[in-house]
Design a protein that fits this description.
Elements: H1 3-10, E1 19-25, E2 32-38, E3 44-49, H2 57-74, H3 80-86, E4 90-91, E5 100-101, E6 107-112, H4 126-142, H5 161-174, H6 177-182, H7 184-193, H8 199-205, E7 212-214, E8 223-225, E9 231-234, E10 241-243, H9 245-256, H10 274-288, H11 294-298, H12 300-320, H13 333-352
Antiparallel strand pairs: 1-2, 2-3, 3-6, 4-6, 5-6, 7-10, 8-9
Helix pairs in contact: 4-9, 4-10, 5-12, 9-12, 12-13
Length: about 350
């Protein structure tokens, strides 16, 4: 895309100043994201939403704009500058929509850039885990009175355990004998955990835990911090949709508490960091405990185990399917990822007795 083409797309939105320069941001694997600097601040984030991955982009954008506006209303007592650093601000187009669809069928949206902010790819200190927990908990607390039923399912069945088991069982039917043999120990682990790993889904389907607004991608890199590592804002809300609190808590713990990369092959290096777990949970509950039921709080440790398991199951499924979903660098890559996640479960269970 030429600079001229980018400027044309940017100028479809009601921003406050003239284009000066831009650079592409490398973070994220799905959308194309650009920092657009203008002649006067604020600067902006221009983003192309990948409509091959997200099938209903107008619905997706409606979800995240509606949730942001709800949070802005809840925080309307804050000074304007602080408000804009506490929640994403979306910019409408010149015709009042919050997305622009170009001639090639691509969807674009614009957000106000939050200046002087930092992100963390991994957690290296309890303080960052604690602040990340506060941000995630605050997001859930501020949206606890939002009617989640009005949101679309951006990725249907994303955390649906029964669906993930169905995918796994279908993959197992068609898998080669060699791959099944290499994965045998982990196939046995899946069978042994099947009943326990459905507990949260069963509670959700029975109505015993509340359907609420959830972020659904709570890795630490989706949180903004100031230069003193104090939490500012939850970002990347493309996957905001109806869910249960366990999705956000469990997925954050999965990514924050692994002492190694998720494809580390030396399993001796893969351990569950209990100190980071406790720090994250402390910050999380400080912000959202009053909005949760005793049952939701009681099952938070199980949520962590469940979300680690669902990723292990997805990696194992893709391995059995000859690696059709996740990008791999070598033939056993997905199996190594699955082994890594199962080791993380074992480490968590051994230390926390769950």
């Amino acid at each position: 895309m030429t600079e001229e083409q980018l400027i044309y797309k940017f100028d479809q939105f009601k921003h406050a100043s003239a284009y000066a320069s831009h650079k592409e941001l490398a973070s994220g694997h799905i959308n194309d994201t650009f920092l657009v600097k203008t002649k006067e601040e604020p600067y902006y984030i221009l983003q192309r939403i990948n409509h091959e991955v997200f099938k209903d982009v107008p619905g997706l954008i409606s979800n995240k704009v509606s949730v942001s506006k709800h949070i802005q209303n809840k925080l309307s007592h804050l000074p304007e500058e602080e408000l804009k650093r506490s929640v994403l601000t979306f910019v409408p187009t010149t015709n009042g929509d919050y997305y622009y669809k170009d001639d090639a069928g691509n969807f674009w949206n614009v957000m106000v850039y939050i200046n002087d902010s930092v992100t963390h790819e991994i957690v290296t200190a309890e303080e960052v885990a604690y602040e990340g927990g506060k941000l995630s908990g605050d997001f859930l607390n501020l949206t606890s009175d939002f009617d989640a039923s009005v949101l679309i399912d951006v990725i249907p069945k994303f955390h649906d355990m029964s669906f993930r088991f169905w995918q796994f069982e279908e993959a197992l039917k068609g898998a080669s004998g060699e791959r099944k043999e290499r994965a045998k120990a982990y196939l046995d682990k899946v069978a042994g955990l099947k009943e326990e790993m459905h507990i949260i889904q069963n509670l959700k389907e029975s109505g015993k835990i509340k359907l609420r607004v959830t972020h659904n991608d709570t890795k630490i890199s989706n949180a903004l911090f100031d230069k003193n590592n104090k939490g500012l804002c939850v970002i990347d809300t493309d996957t905001v949709m109806p869910g249960v609190v366990h999705y956000d808590f469990g997925d954050a713990i999965r990514t924050i508490c692994n002492t190694a990369a998720e494809d580390e092959t030396n399993l001796d290096l893969v351990n569950f960091n209990v100190a980071f777990y406790k720090a994250y949970k402390k910050g999380f509950l400080e912000k959202v405990e009053s909005a949760l039921t005793p049952l939701e709080i009681e099952t938070l440790p199980l949520a962590a185990k469940t979300m680690i398991f669902i990723m292990a199951l997805r990696f194992l499924t893709d391995y059995l399917n000859d690696d059709i979903y996740y990008k791999t660098k070598y033939p056993e890559h997905n199996l190594d990822r699955a082994k890594n996640q199962f080791k993380l479960i074992d480490s968590m269970v051994a230390q926390m007795k769950i």
